[in-house]
Amino acid sequence: MNQIIHVSSMNDSETGSSSSSVEKNSFTSEDKLKSSEFRCRITFVRSHLWTWILILLCLIFILISLLIGFLIITIRSQQNSSSLCLSVDCITASAEMLTSMNSEIDPCIDFYEYSCGGWIRTNSMSDDESRADTYSVIRNQMSEKLKLLLEEPITEADNEAIRKVKNFYLSCVDTKLIEQRAERPLLDLLDQEFGGWSLIGRETEKLTTMDWVTMMGILRQYNNEIIIGHNVGPNDANSSLYSIKIYPGGLGMSSSDFYLNKSSKNYQSYRQLMIKTVNLLMQPSSSSNQNQHQHQHQQLQSNETIQRIHTDIDDILEFETRLANISSMFEKTGGAAYQRMPVNKLAKLVPKINWQKYFELTIPQPLNDTESIGIFGFDYFLDVQDITQTVPERIIKNYLLWRFVMNRIKNLDQRFENILEDYYRDQYGTKSIPARWKKCIDFVNGNLGTAVSALYVRKYFDLESKQKAEEMIKNIKKEFMLILDEVEWMDDETRNDAKKKAEMMEEHIGFPDYILDPVLLDKDFDHLEFENSTYFENVVGYLRNSTKKSQGKLSSVDDRTKWTVMPSVVNAQYHRFRNLMSFPAAILQSPFFNKNYPPALNYGAIGSVIGHELTHGFDSNGRHHDQFGNQRLWWHPNTVDRFIKKSSCMIMQYNNYTVKIHGETLNANGLLTLGENIADNGGVKQSYRAFRRSQQQRPNEFYLPGLNMTHDQLFFLKFAQSWCQIMTDEGMIDALKTWRHSLGKFRVIGTLSNFAEFSKAYKCQPGTPMNPREKCSVW
């Protein structure tokens, strides 16, 4: 408008002013031209004005749109941020999971490498380990904690049990005194109990007149199961009572296969350990009395003596190789045919073994001839009878004492640790033996666990963890009950009995309350005495006392409340004779469990372990025991047949897994590992279902920062990372031959490739390695 006014005023000045009306009302041609020009200018100006207005409006609209978009993004970002778990525990878990992964791998091709590739690259075994995995990491952390607790000085506040366990630990780490005493404690024990050992040139009339069954019985008092293994455990027909069970004894090497090739590294290193041990026992140490051992030292220098020792050792190995041959089937199948018979019938069928004498030495109360005994692998004992009739008794006794000595040299001075280090290097691929304090922790924690657990629980255990674990167990049990309704291969009668068993299955979680009561805890240690200056005697004294206590249960009733796994031990267990699951305090910690984790992590890790132990009640071994733990045939024969068929699928699946070591392809043993594989597969399924049901109640569950994953994907990733594992070649060979668990890799790919929900979560196409068209499923 200013421009128009401005133009009009300019026109007025140019035309001048006139007072004449004619001039005001009449238009000349020039005036018309000027008027037309004026209108054109106004139209031009108005046209440009609207253009600029439209441009301005467009700019304003764009700016407003950008602002709205920015606000939407900001709001959404804030919403996403609020759904992330940003606690220290979650951030730590996220970082650990990310660094453990190898995201360059397609999860549908190899989920183990995808989940654990980073962990395998960034973790290493300590020199004293043949493997490293999640369990060993937690165990090492536990050892450090227990070390601090046991090294605290004994005070007046410590009750008797705590004093005793600390004294034992102090005696174990007193290397100065152990070095001073050298081999003397072992030689004294050999002389006192057996009259020496002919292999090292110490032979008295007591040794000469002692028969091999008597020697074997005495050795059993020190918890040695050599040639014949036996224990006093729950009775098959009535698990509230105890009975004797016998089975093949163990071997010096971990697998019977290692005896097949005399030139193999395993066989030769075992032979060298025997030679080195004999040499050390026949030579005085620098701290020993030189005069006392001088004659042994001189004996060792003669070629005749050396030849005699080597011949004796080869005779021992030949005898043990024959034992390995007759026990190999028991080892490879993980069991043997089972039957029961009274002692007098066993004595008639296997008369060359003096069973009466053996049981008189091993059972601390009179045994009736009609006492029923459980026997695993009856044919083995027939073979033992035949072999021992063809081998000179001197060789048998030398073998028995060698096995005892092999177990006890680990309690002697550094010289013996050095030769054990060489042996373990060849057998398991370790570079050194554990530091002495680690071995001491392992012993006291594994054998004096209630007192050690009391220290640990008071210092470290969070009671809220126990409550959360109880809730998870309850939820997982519910899912198993639903699965029982869904399985088509089980008849209704067996299904109903299975439900009863699942309902009655008990749990031990965290720790027993009594260990926090000093008076009750002291009762566990009434029969034990330890001095802080006699480590070797403390060990053998404990072995004798604990063996006597366990063998003395024969006439007693089983205390079903007694814990079978110590709270400070990193493990979980199902006890089929009690229908009982145990989840001790030590396993209820990161990375398996954390009360502050999102449910996907807890259910993926400890939840799968809970489901694993629950499934053991219904696997290839657990199915033989009812809800009370009694062994009986409670499954319908047709259901048994269908179970065996489904199990056979899993046996074949795991048999086909291989590893290549030193250019040789080795297969997994699907039969030996069957029970554990069934438990792995069932456990992850139950836990996943319980997790999904929990999500229905908590739809807005937190995610982990940095991991762009769904909750389902996190569940399976956490499960897989629970089994990340590295091993030495030697350790892997040993595991393939002797472990009842599959290797970590096979536990992951075997379990998840059978589970359709995994393939759905990671969008794995049918026919890919992790989503095979043919799957195996039992539970």
Automatic annotation (TrEMBL):
Residues 8-24 have a biased composition (Low complexity). The keyword Membrane applies. Residues 107-512 form the Peptidase M13 N-terminal domain. One of its GO terms (cellular component) is plasma membrane. It comes from the Eukaryota. The chain crosses the membrane at residues 49-73. Residues 1-24, 284-303 are annotated as: Disordered. Keywords: Hydrolase, Membrane, Metal-binding, Metalloprotease, Protease, Transmembrane, Transmembrane helix, Zinc. This is Neprilysin-4-like. It comes from Dermatophagoides pteronyssinus (European house dust mite). The gene is LOC113797067.
